[in-house]
Amino acid sequence: MMIRDIVYFMSLGAILGVAKQNNTEVISTGAAQKDAARPDSIQRILVVDDSRAQRSLMSRSLAKQGYQVTEAGSGLEAIKLFAAQEFDLILSDWMMPGMDGLELCKAIRSQTANGYVYFILLTSKSDKDAVSRGLNVGADDFLAKPFNPDELRARISAGGRILSMERELQETNRLVSSALAELKTLYDSLDRDLVEARKMQQSLVRESFRDWGRAEVSLLLKPCGHVGGDLVGFFDAGKDHIAFYSIDVSGHGIASALLTARLASYLSEGSPTHNIALIERNDGDHRRQPPEIVAAQLNTLLTKDMLSEHYFTMLFGYLDMTTGRVEFTQCGHPNAVVLNRSGRAHFIGEGGMPIGLISDAEFERQTLNLQLGERLIFYSDGFTECENVQKDQIEEQGFGEILEKNSGLTNEMLFDAMVWDLDRFAGGQEFGDDLSCVMLTYKSQT
């Protein structure tokens, strides 16, 4: 709010003029009114009294103080003036024929188009019951008759302070409403962009299932918001080999989603020459980079080239479809799980260092041999860190139980059952993190 300096101008030889129009007397102070810049919120006053002498006396007293004063001889006349003009304060006699001061006050309060108007009742009544009745219908203050000019001035000043605060509050509310409207417009625009961003992120998973004959891979990607920081995928890694990975970027939202898009370009099957895991040979074919080397190169990109504030965890591996041998590296990602043919879940992993935290971090290779019919699952911590209403996490044990319970299902049906049971554990709460999963099924050596 702006603080205005209080400036009073004294005008010598002020001329008092009285103009009559439509049985209403409008009092002005000539040059004094023109030059006086009142500092309070009360400029225009409506004086209502059935006594012409009382109205004139009060109007002249107010006009000398620089107010714009309009007179009304009855409550009905005051209502008509109020409908046609704007007033800051109404000074009304209580006892009037026809519509008295209380009825006038009640009628004024029922009309809100002109904003709040300060209402002072002039009365010779002093008992508490009368005061209570006046307050109940909406009067703001009382002034005893006959009035004292100094007391009148003080009560109008008090009303001015109240009106000033009320109008400042109205302006603040207007600004807040305007800001909220702008924010809603921005939010709607951002929401539309995020919907499109979600579609684009989902498009990073070009295929949710592929069958190589001797093995098949299924993917699940379920962001907890519009966009997320999880990424899963697979690609052909040369003769008899499949590459597959699960990535979880730190944080949530747009920044994390942008990093997943960048990472997807480094592990794309559509452009082997730009795939960081593949090196082109002289014969035009591509050979595989060891999984720990892939992790090290991604770590260099993140810490030295991209200079991102984010880091990510990852499981990245290759399957040799002729032997069932899997080579993989674990970079701070949750432990992998093998689901054997009898439906038992066995977790495998050694932790490892996330990618993007330390520039010279080292990564290790792990190996395992899948038997025919076994499934290897890489998943994000959105599964194991899911919380119930008591804030207890499901952890590996609970997640393993979900897998074992639904081990008779395959591919998409298994994913649906996993999410369903996880939702049941969470008690119907929104998931606090993205859910992603890549499941490799080893079917045959021939």
UniProtKB/TrEMBL annotation:
One of its GO terms (molecular function) is phosphatase activity. The modification 4-aspartylphosphate is found at D93. Residues 44-160 form the Response regulatory domain. Keywords: Coiled coil, Hydrolase, Phosphoprotein. The keyword Transmembrane helix does not apply. It comes from the Bacteria. Pfam families: Response_reg (PF00072), SpoIIE (PF07228). InterPro entries: Bact_Sigma-Reg, CheY-like_superfamily, PPM-type-like_dom_sf, PPM-type_phosphatase-like_dom, Sig_transdc_resp-reg_receiver. Residues 162-200 form a coiled coil. GO terms for biological process: phosphorelay signal transduction system. This is Transcriptional regulatory protein OmpR. The lineage of its organism: Bacteria, Pseudomonadati, Pseudomonadota, Alphaproteobacteria, Rhodobacterales.
